[in-house]
Design brief:
The strands form four sheets. An eight-stranded antiparallel β-barrel has the order 4-5-6-7-8-9-10-11. Strands 12-13-14-15-16-17-18-19 form an eight-stranded antiparallel β-barrel. By secondary structure, the chain is mainly beta.
Length: 329
Protein backbone atom coordinates (compact mmCIF):
# COMPACT_ATOMS: atom_id res chain seq x y z
CA UNK A 1 0.00 0.00 0.00
CA UNK A 2 1.36 3.43 -0.99
CA UNK A 3 -0.46 6.21 0.93
CA UNK A 4 -0.30 9.96 0.45
CA UNK A 5 -0.75 11.56 3.87
CA UNK A 6 -1.56 15.19 4.57
CA UNK A 7 -2.26 16.26 8.14
CA UNK A 8 -4.43 13.59 9.70
CA UNK A 9 -5.98 12.51 6.39
CA UNK A 10 -5.00 9.76 4.01
CA UNK A 11 -5.59 11.66 0.76
CA UNK A 12 -5.14 8.63 -1.47
CA UNK A 13 -3.94 5.06 -1.26
CA UNK A 14 -3.11 2.58 -4.00
CA UNK A 15 -2.86 -1.15 -3.41
CA UNK A 16 -2.23 -3.79 -6.03
CA UNK A 17 -1.64 -7.50 -6.56
CA UNK A 18 -2.55 -9.96 -9.29
CA UNK A 19 -6.25 -9.70 -8.51
CA UNK A 20 -6.66 -6.18 -7.14
CA UNK A 21 -5.79 -2.69 -8.33
CA UNK A 22 -7.77 0.23 -6.99
CA UNK A 23 -7.27 3.80 -5.81
CA UNK A 24 -9.26 4.93 -2.75
CA UNK A 25 -9.66 8.64 -2.01
CA UNK A 26 -10.19 10.72 1.15
CA UNK A 27 -9.82 8.14 3.88
CA UNK A 28 -9.57 9.50 7.40
CA UNK A 29 -7.07 8.10 9.89
CA UNK A 30 -8.85 6.81 12.97
CA UNK A 31 -7.40 6.93 16.47
CA UNK A 32 -7.54 4.45 19.30
CA UNK A 33 -10.70 4.89 21.33
CA UNK A 34 -10.19 5.24 25.09
CA UNK A 35 -12.72 5.50 27.88
CA UNK A 36 -12.55 6.75 31.43
CA UNK A 37 -12.45 3.15 32.62
CA UNK A 38 -9.08 2.70 30.87
CA UNK A 39 -7.52 5.20 33.28
CA UNK A 40 -9.16 3.87 36.43
CA UNK A 41 -6.74 2.69 39.08
CA UNK A 42 -3.39 3.59 40.58
CA UNK A 43 -0.41 4.90 38.62
CA UNK A 44 3.15 5.90 39.53
CA UNK A 45 5.02 8.66 37.70
CA UNK A 46 8.39 10.33 37.37
CA UNK A 47 8.82 13.82 35.97
CA UNK A 48 11.31 16.37 34.73
CA UNK A 49 10.49 20.05 35.26
CA UNK A 50 11.92 23.56 35.22
CA UNK A 51 11.14 27.07 36.46
CA UNK A 52 13.02 29.68 34.37
CA UNK A 53 12.05 32.62 36.59
CA UNK A 54 13.91 30.98 39.48
CA UNK A 55 16.58 29.29 37.33
CA UNK A 56 15.73 25.94 38.90
CA UNK A 57 14.97 22.48 37.59
CA UNK A 58 14.03 19.22 39.25
CA UNK A 59 12.98 15.62 38.94
CA UNK A 60 9.77 14.48 40.58
CA UNK A 61 7.92 11.28 41.38
CA UNK A 62 4.61 10.34 42.90
CA UNK A 63 1.27 8.60 42.44
CA UNK A 64 -2.04 9.20 40.66
CA UNK A 65 -5.38 7.55 41.40
CA UNK A 66 -8.12 7.91 38.78
CA UNK A 67 -11.81 7.39 39.56
CA UNK A 68 -14.17 6.30 36.78
CA UNK A 69 -17.53 8.04 36.89
CA UNK A 70 -18.72 6.09 33.86
CA UNK A 71 -19.19 9.15 31.64
CA UNK A 72 -16.48 9.66 29.03
CA UNK A 73 -17.88 13.10 28.16
CA UNK A 74 -17.08 14.44 31.61
CA UNK A 75 -13.84 15.14 33.46
CA UNK A 76 -12.02 12.18 34.99
CA UNK A 77 -10.97 13.16 38.54
CA UNK A 78 -7.71 12.11 40.16
CA UNK A 79 -5.88 12.48 43.44
CA UNK A 80 -2.31 11.61 44.34
CA UNK A 81 1.03 12.58 45.75
CA UNK A 82 3.90 14.63 44.33
CA UNK A 83 7.48 14.84 45.59
CA UNK A 84 10.83 16.21 44.49
CA UNK A 85 12.54 14.37 47.35
CA UNK A 86 14.21 11.26 45.88
CA UNK A 87 13.55 9.33 49.09
CA UNK A 88 9.85 10.17 48.95
CA UNK A 89 9.76 11.23 52.60
CA UNK A 90 8.69 14.79 51.79
CA UNK A 91 5.61 14.73 49.53
CA UNK A 92 2.52 16.86 48.89
CA UNK A 93 -1.03 16.04 47.87
CA UNK A 94 -2.24 16.81 44.34
CA UNK A 95 -5.65 16.61 42.68
CA UNK A 96 -7.21 17.44 39.35
CA UNK A 97 -9.11 16.14 36.37
CA UNK A 98 -8.44 14.94 32.82
CA UNK A 99 -10.59 14.75 29.70
CA UNK A 100 -10.15 12.58 26.60
CA UNK A 101 -10.33 14.55 23.34
CA UNK A 102 -11.71 13.15 20.09
CA UNK A 103 -8.27 12.04 18.89
CA UNK A 104 -7.45 10.18 22.12
CA UNK A 105 -5.34 12.99 23.60
CA UNK A 106 -5.70 14.00 27.24
CA UNK A 107 -5.94 17.49 28.67
CA UNK A 108 -6.96 18.95 32.00
CA UNK A 109 -5.59 20.59 35.12
CA UNK A 110 -3.95 19.79 38.44
CA UNK A 111 -3.97 21.59 41.80
CA UNK A 112 -0.64 21.56 43.68
CA UNK A 113 0.24 23.74 46.69
CA UNK A 114 -2.66 26.05 45.90
CA UNK A 115 -1.58 26.59 42.29
CA UNK A 116 -3.52 25.35 39.27
CA UNK A 117 -1.36 23.76 36.59
CA UNK A 118 -2.67 23.26 33.06
CA UNK A 119 -2.12 19.83 31.51
CA UNK A 120 -1.77 20.75 27.85
CA UNK A 121 -1.31 17.28 26.37
CA UNK A 122 -1.24 13.63 27.34
CA UNK A 123 -1.32 10.15 25.80
CA UNK A 124 -1.90 6.55 26.87
CA UNK A 125 -0.44 3.52 25.09
CA UNK A 126 -2.50 0.77 23.44
CA UNK A 127 -1.75 -1.64 26.29
CA UNK A 128 -3.20 0.81 28.86
CA UNK A 129 -0.03 0.46 30.93
CA UNK A 130 1.85 3.72 30.22
CA UNK A 131 0.85 7.38 30.28
CA UNK A 132 2.51 10.71 29.47
CA UNK A 133 1.26 14.08 30.73
CA UNK A 134 2.75 17.47 29.82
CA UNK A 135 2.25 20.81 31.55
CA UNK A 136 3.91 24.01 30.34
CA UNK A 137 6.93 23.31 32.56
CA UNK A 138 7.07 19.59 33.32
CA UNK A 139 6.78 16.26 31.54
CA UNK A 140 5.45 13.28 33.52
CA UNK A 141 5.81 9.63 32.52
CA UNK A 142 3.56 7.21 34.40
CA UNK A 143 3.10 3.44 34.53
CA UNK A 144 0.14 1.56 35.92
CA UNK A 145 0.70 -0.05 39.32
CA UNK A 146 0.36 -3.82 39.58
CA UNK A 147 1.22 -6.82 41.73
CA UNK A 148 3.05 -10.13 41.56
CA UNK A 149 6.55 -8.73 41.02
CA UNK A 150 9.69 -10.51 42.21
CA UNK A 151 13.29 -9.39 42.53
CA UNK A 152 14.17 -11.66 39.60
CA UNK A 153 12.07 -9.43 37.31
CA UNK A 154 14.81 -6.81 37.60
CA UNK A 155 17.63 -9.19 36.65
CA UNK A 156 19.24 -8.61 33.26
CA UNK A 157 20.21 -5.82 30.92
CA UNK A 158 18.17 -2.63 30.62
CA UNK A 159 18.72 0.17 28.11
CA UNK A 160 18.71 3.59 29.80
CA UNK A 161 17.40 6.86 28.39
CA UNK A 162 17.67 9.99 30.51
CA UNK A 163 16.67 13.66 30.69
CA UNK A 164 18.99 15.42 33.15
CA UNK A 165 20.53 18.59 34.48
CA UNK A 166 24.09 18.86 35.81
CA UNK A 167 25.09 21.51 38.39
CA UNK A 168 25.09 24.96 36.76
CA UNK A 169 24.99 23.55 33.26
CA UNK A 170 21.97 23.50 30.99
CA UNK A 171 19.92 20.41 30.31
CA UNK A 172 21.16 17.31 28.60
CA UNK A 173 20.40 13.72 27.83
CA UNK A 174 21.95 10.37 28.61
CA UNK A 175 22.08 7.05 26.80
CA UNK A 176 23.45 3.74 27.99
CA UNK A 177 22.58 0.62 29.90
CA UNK A 178 22.38 -0.96 33.35
CA UNK A 179 22.85 -4.64 34.11
CA UNK A 180 21.35 -5.98 37.36
CA UNK A 181 22.42 -9.32 38.80
CA UNK A 182 20.14 -11.72 40.70
CA UNK A 183 20.76 -9.93 44.01
CA UNK A 184 19.81 -6.50 42.66
CA UNK A 185 23.39 -5.27 42.37
CA UNK A 186 24.28 -3.14 39.33
CA UNK A 187 26.95 -5.41 37.90
CA UNK A 188 27.92 -3.47 34.77
CA UNK A 189 26.86 -0.92 32.19
CA UNK A 190 27.55 2.68 31.20
CA UNK A 191 25.56 5.89 30.82
CA UNK A 192 27.00 8.72 28.71
CA UNK A 193 25.57 12.20 29.24
CA UNK A 194 25.91 15.28 27.04
CA UNK A 195 25.03 18.71 28.48
CA UNK A 196 24.92 22.09 26.78
CA UNK A 197 25.51 25.67 27.92
CA UNK A 198 28.50 25.27 28.40
CA UNK A 199 29.09 21.93 26.72
CA UNK A 200 30.00 19.12 29.11
CA UNK A 201 30.29 15.40 28.54
CA UNK A 202 29.96 13.03 31.48
CA UNK A 203 30.67 9.35 30.92
CA UNK A 204 29.45 7.47 33.96
CA UNK A 205 30.29 3.92 34.93
CA UNK A 206 27.32 2.82 37.06
CA UNK A 207 27.30 0.89 40.30
CA UNK A 208 24.77 0.52 43.08
CA UNK A 209 21.75 -1.54 44.03
CA UNK A 210 18.11 -2.02 43.14
CA UNK A 211 15.24 -3.51 45.14
CA UNK A 212 11.93 -4.46 43.52
CA UNK A 213 8.92 -4.89 45.80
CA UNK A 214 5.91 -7.10 45.15
CA UNK A 215 3.87 -4.11 43.92
CA UNK A 216 6.54 -3.07 41.40
CA UNK A 217 8.08 -0.19 43.37
CA UNK A 218 11.81 0.31 42.69
CA UNK A 219 14.24 1.82 45.18
CA UNK A 220 17.99 1.87 45.41
CA UNK A 221 21.19 3.85 45.04
CA UNK A 222 23.12 4.76 41.92
CA UNK A 223 26.72 5.90 41.58
CA UNK A 224 28.06 7.20 38.28
CA UNK A 225 31.85 7.34 38.22
CA UNK A 226 33.81 9.05 35.44
CA UNK A 227 37.19 9.08 37.14
CA UNK A 228 38.79 8.65 40.54
CA UNK A 229 38.07 12.30 41.32
CA UNK A 230 34.69 12.75 39.61
CA UNK A 231 31.60 10.83 40.62
CA UNK A 232 27.93 11.40 41.34
CA UNK A 233 25.96 9.30 43.80
CA UNK A 234 22.48 9.30 45.30
CA UNK A 235 19.15 7.54 45.82
CA UNK A 236 16.50 6.80 43.23
CA UNK A 237 12.90 5.68 43.31
CA UNK A 238 10.51 4.51 40.63
CA UNK A 239 8.24 1.79 39.34
CA UNK A 240 8.28 -1.16 36.92
CA UNK A 241 5.44 -1.47 34.40
CA UNK A 242 2.96 -4.33 34.62
CA UNK A 243 4.42 -5.72 31.37
CA UNK A 244 7.80 -5.92 33.16
CA UNK A 245 9.61 -4.56 30.12
CA UNK A 246 9.87 -0.91 31.18
CA UNK A 247 10.81 0.93 34.38
CA UNK A 248 10.85 4.63 35.32
CA UNK A 249 13.26 6.18 37.84
CA UNK A 250 13.83 9.60 39.44
CA UNK A 251 17.45 10.12 40.57
CA UNK A 252 19.12 13.00 42.41
CA UNK A 253 22.85 12.76 43.00
CA UNK A 254 25.52 14.65 44.90
CA UNK A 255 29.07 14.98 43.62
CA UNK A 256 32.46 14.55 45.25
CA UNK A 257 32.68 18.30 45.84
CA UNK A 258 29.68 18.32 48.17
CA UNK A 259 27.02 19.64 45.81
CA UNK A 260 23.85 17.87 47.05
CA UNK A 261 21.97 18.69 43.84
CA UNK A 262 24.72 18.01 41.31
CA UNK A 263 22.52 15.95 39.00
CA UNK A 264 18.76 15.59 38.61
CA UNK A 265 17.85 12.82 36.24
CA UNK A 266 14.71 11.13 34.93
CA UNK A 267 15.56 7.66 33.63
CA UNK A 268 13.46 5.35 31.49
CA UNK A 269 14.71 1.76 31.39
CA UNK A 270 13.71 -0.64 28.60
CA UNK A 271 14.45 -4.33 29.00
CA UNK A 272 16.71 -5.93 26.40
CA UNK A 273 15.04 -8.61 24.32
CA UNK A 274 12.55 -9.33 21.58
CA UNK A 275 12.86 -9.54 17.82
CA UNK A 276 12.16 -6.39 15.84
CA UNK A 277 12.06 -5.30 12.22
CA UNK A 278 12.06 -1.85 10.63
CA UNK A 279 8.44 -2.43 9.65
CA UNK A 280 7.51 -2.39 13.33
CA UNK A 281 8.11 1.37 13.23
CA UNK A 282 5.40 1.95 10.63
CA UNK A 283 2.43 3.91 11.86
CA UNK A 284 1.41 7.07 13.69
CA UNK A 285 3.50 7.86 16.79
CA UNK A 286 2.96 10.56 19.38
CA UNK A 287 5.96 12.61 20.54
CA UNK A 288 6.35 14.06 24.03
CA UNK A 289 9.63 15.55 25.24
CA UNK A 290 11.20 18.12 27.52
CA UNK A 291 14.26 20.36 27.22
CA UNK A 292 15.12 20.90 30.86
CA UNK A 293 17.68 23.31 32.27
CA UNK A 294 17.99 25.79 35.09
CA UNK A 295 17.73 28.97 33.02
CA UNK A 296 15.20 28.00 30.37
CA UNK A 297 13.15 25.08 29.17
CA UNK A 298 10.35 23.89 26.94
CA UNK A 299 7.96 20.95 26.80
CA UNK A 300 7.52 19.51 23.29
CA UNK A 301 4.58 17.63 21.79
CA UNK A 302 3.64 16.40 18.34
CA UNK A 303 3.52 13.29 16.20
CA UNK A 304 5.42 11.47 13.47
CA UNK A 305 4.21 9.15 10.73
CA UNK A 306 6.52 6.38 9.58
CA UNK A 307 6.20 4.41 6.34
CA UNK A 308 8.69 1.83 5.06
CA UNK A 309 11.28 2.99 7.56
CA UNK A 310 11.04 6.66 6.55
CA UNK A 311 9.42 9.73 8.11
CA UNK A 312 6.33 10.35 5.96
CA UNK A 313 4.97 13.34 7.86
CA UNK A 314 4.24 14.81 11.25
CA UNK A 315 4.83 17.90 13.33
CA UNK A 316 6.53 19.06 16.52
CA UNK A 317 5.09 22.03 18.40
CA UNK A 318 2.97 22.83 15.35
CA UNK A 319 5.90 22.88 12.92
CA UNK A 320 6.04 20.25 10.12
CA UNK A 321 8.71 17.58 10.40
CA UNK A 322 11.04 17.08 7.47
CA UNK A 323 10.08 13.98 5.50
CA UNK A 324 12.35 11.33 4.08
CA UNK A 325 14.57 10.73 7.12
CA UNK A 326 15.45 7.06 7.35
CA UNK A 327 14.76 5.03 10.47
CA UNK A 328 15.95 1.53 11.18
CA UNK A 329 15.80 -1.11 13.88
Amino acid sequence: VEPLIEGDNLVSATASDSAFNETVDTLTITYDSFTAADLTGDWSFVGSGFEPSETTSWTSHGTLRFDDDGDISSDIPFTGTYSTDPTGVDSEEISGQLTFNDDGALSGSALYQGETLTIVDGRMDDNLSMLTLATDRELLTAVRQGSGFAQSDLTGKWYAYSVSTLAEHAGGDGLGSLVFDATGKIASGSINYTFSGPSVTFRGKPSGTGALSADGALTGTLTLTQSKTLGISGPYSGRMSTRKDLAILAFTGSDDLGDDDAMSSLLILVREGGKFATGDLNGHWRLEGVLNNRADGVVHSGYVKVLSGKVAGGELDGAPLATGSKLAL
